[in-house]
Amino acid sequence: MLFGQKFHQYQVPEWAPLYIPYASLKRLFNKAVRAEADSMKTQPDFSGVYTSLDRSIDSFSGFHYEKYQLLHERGAELCRIYGVAPEANTLPKTYDANCYEVGNFLRAIVELRKDLEKLQWYSRVNEEAIHRIYAKLEKHGNLAEHFHQGHKSKWIKSKSDRDTLCSKFNERLNALIADITRVRADANLHSTTRSLCLQRTSGQHLRASAYDTSLLSFLANDEPSNLANQLEEMYLRNRTQDSYFQGLLYDLANLSIASGARFSASFLLSKAFPKYGVAIDHKILNHIITISGRGDILKEHARLRTCPLCDSAGSRDELGNSLFVCAIEQLGPNRKDILSSKDIFGRTPLHYGALYGFPITCQSILGSLEACGESYLASLILSLDSHGYTALHYSVINNHAISTTVLLDTLRLAGRTGDRTIDQDLGTVLNDLLSIAVKYQYSDIVDLLGKCQFGFQLSSHGETALYVASRSGREDYVDTLLNNGRDIEINIPESVHGWTPLFIACVEGHQAVANLLLKAGAKQDLQDHLGWTAKEHAALRGHLALAETLNAWNIDISSGGPASMPTKPVSGVKPSFRTDQSYVIVNLGDLRNGKQVKAVDLMDSSAENAVYTNSDLSMEVSIGGQSSTSLLVELPTLRDTVNDPFVFPVSDPDKAWISFKLFRKGYLHTTGPSLLGSGAASLKTLNNCFGAHRESLVRARSIAILEKETLSVMGTVTFTFVIAKPMAHPASPFMPAHSVRGKGLQLVGHRVIPFSCKAWSYICRNVQLTRDLLPIIYHDFSLSESGTDIPIHDLSFEQFMYFSKVQLPRGEPISVLRKVDTRNMPDGTNRVKLRSQSLTQDHERGVHEFRDRMKYTVDFINKGFKPNTRGDFIQDAFATLEELLVELPESINFNIEIKYPRLHEAVDAGVAPVAIEINTFIDTVLEILISHGRNKRAIILSSFTPEVCILLAIKQRMYPVMFVTNAGKPPMTDMEIRASSMQAAIRFAKRWDLAGIVFASETLIACPRLIGYVKSSGLVCGSYGTQNNIPQNAKVQAAAGIDILMVDRVGLITAELHSTSADN
């Protein structure tokens, strides 16, 4: 799928407005290209692109640095609290802390690393977007080389500096996590005689005193009465100054909270603090919330939970709530100041309560300040921290529906006060938060915010929440927003493309959502910034069923929109292949829709690698033993895995193997990336399981990645590949190449040979191979004439011809091609007229028996007839490709469709998905064409199978190659991604420098301006299908500039087109 189409899916929702405006930059680039085409300039002016790119990079870099600094400060604060040097990678050897303290430190570091990974992912997506903009500029060519390189070098330098900072920080956190995990495995850590908190307070001279030992023992056993007696004794003996004693009490309270000593903590906060003059401040409150909130953070890291006693989350939420309520009850008249106080990150206790989803905590804070008035409470809820987030932001972002309800209820009360400032701020925040909730697909929160009955306007990202919901495809979200009790404008376009919610529903193919919008009154006749309609966007992307539900297009309008796009180069990538070289073409992942398979699927790591996450991973793909080329892919991959495959040249595929190596990048790895694991497989064994000249139609393969040290399976890699082998007798490079471009409308006779008509330009014939490798002319996958579903490639030539014989009238010789009437042929050749034949009653009886034999075959059951049967469509005996080329006049041009078996055909027929090896298949056909096609006859090669088109493009340049596709025409049986839509087909054809595409005509009839769009991509545009036999449909496509029309009723269509031309 296109990177731009999935760009929103890669984003951190709350940071969406802060990403590189990829779509806007692309629009600027395309605008410059269009301006060049309109003004006939030799070089487009990309100054606007560079200016906007500069500004975007500066904004992205500034935000990244700001976030990094806040994370770094958090790390430094944690190290200060837990007694670790700011830049240390390990704990001190004499680390004096108990297990609870170390466990809390671990959870805090894991939480910090998670936030760092989010920042790294933000950086990764932006870097990919910037890389793609540079690639577009470079692909266009003729750039001011010095300026462009200087601009790009500056970016690369800033990227390198940023990556080094984050990698260094990430490695340090990983090292700390590893060391903490190691330390926690020490049984002595559960000793009650050590505490980092008390060590800092009491000083070295009291470190091992009986008092400290007793205090820790009482806390560990949660004995508040003994703790009270010990403190009273210490105070009465006046062993220390009041300030020291108050500090000791403060730290004891923190330690009791961290240790889960509920009764001791309650005693300290409710009785000891007032008695000894210790004040509860916002730090204590924040500590209660964060300790409880981080309680289950190790759930996703099973191998880090090395202490069952301390890692059990148990009733941490309940404990935190009860302690917080206890603490807040002790606040005096200055409670307003305490609860509104901010820490070094600009957060109040309400921020933390919302962040960790504690509704009781949030309710306690708001209830405690109720006397301050609703407006004050609203301002507290909407108060921003250093990250620019409110408490409501944190509650929504972290999917805490109950906490969100508490905050929204308070804001509703505040809204009744009539404070316009609050209403304005709240409206902006709610619009943004609703969009965020929809992107995260937090259903409960979408329901809460959607029913707030505020007007849905553009968010800070330039999109309405209804637009975001429509893009997500969630019918329930759209229904909630449309029925929120307030009139809303559903035709508000987003700012970049000018797409309304209906547009984006059509782009994404969400039929149910589009129906809801149409029912609500969405306008269908609107056009976006480029003049496209929603119907055309749906048709382009293969959502034809959706497109057909929209209003029919005005057939008199064939210009503008898609038809007015500037002409693009024939191919963005000019493949250059040697005819004596083999190539291995590898795509990551599966190339079939509906397959929920990850290209790289990693499992739980071993204990050694458990401290690491899947960030900063990369994979090297190479062909061992045959190619010096290796390619590195960052994981997870953001590249187009469909039309951007790896192409490896190899000399002998039978001796080659494919290798995948998994690396971790890291600042601390001075020798380069660290190898984690690898997997390899022989290409021959992957593809040679069914004997000579046979292969599976299932091209996706999965191999295991084995961990370097243990050789245990750490994951799998799924990939799809095809091998292009050189022909044994390639065509001479000096043979002239045929072209199909620039010849005006060309009619192709389909299925029936219209010998009596001179209007056609080409005749379409389908070529398959028998099992003894003879190219024959036959359309369907299986030979139903046999009464079975046996595939053609499983029949010998003699078996195949036998079923041609049984269809012939008695006494008629088995000639492969009967003589034809060529008096009306373009070359004027006169030949004997084809004699009429009358079938005897015996033959008619034989035909009935023949049809009766076929009635249980898949073809007959699905269609009710067999197209290849005499008397239905085909009127001649079966033929070979060689006989077709030799016996028919050179004036007859051919569209030779290579009917290589497809997976869905085998599945539908219920036969094994095995076929003739694809190189053998294609080479056999090409050898016949090259041997007998060296004449004036024009030949086009075409196929529904993408691999066939790729190999034809690599093996020869003599004949133009065209991709044939249904392009989304329902019912969808072929799940091949490259054939799933017009857009996918265009990208595929351009990638492999094909001549053009032949589409199922339904798409072009519904949206004829798309014909101009295909041609502007530098491709020949054709169509096929029964709809082309309707004159009006042919006229519509011809008026839109179609190049090739494949029809059955050539005479009728020709007469109608000539009539239209004469009228004009």
Can you walk through the features of this model?
This is GDPD-domain-containing protein. One of its GO terms (biological process) is glycerophospholipid catabolic process. Keywords: ANK repeat, Hydrolase, Repeat. InterPro entries: Ankyrin_rpt, Ankyrin_rpt-contain_sf, C2_GPCPD1, GDPD, GP_PDE_dom, PLC-like_Pdiesterase_TIM-brl, SPX_dom. Residues 1-151 form the SPX domain. The chain has 1064 residues and is α/β, with parallel strands linked by helices. It has 4 domains: 3-189; 455-564, Serine Threonine Protein Phosphatase 5, Tetratricopeptide repeat (Alpha Horseshoe); 582-724, C2 domain (Immunoglobulin-like, Sandwich), CATH 2.60.40.150; 746-1063, Phosphatidylinositol (PI) phosphodiesterase (TIM Barrel, Alpha-Beta Barrel). The strands form 3 sheets. Strands 1, 2, 3, 4, 5, 6, 7, 9 and 10 form a 9-stranded antiparallel β-sheet that branches. Strands 11-12-15-17-18-19-20-21 form an 8-stranded parallel β-barrel, surrounded by 6 helices. Strands 8-16 form a two-stranded antiparallel sheet. A hairpin with a 5-residue loop joins strand 3 and strand 4. Helix 3 runs antiparallel to helix 4 (99-140) and helix 11 (282-293) runs parallel beside helix 15. The two termini are 43 Å apart. Residues 204-208, 810-816, 818-839 and 870-875 have low confidence and may be disordered.
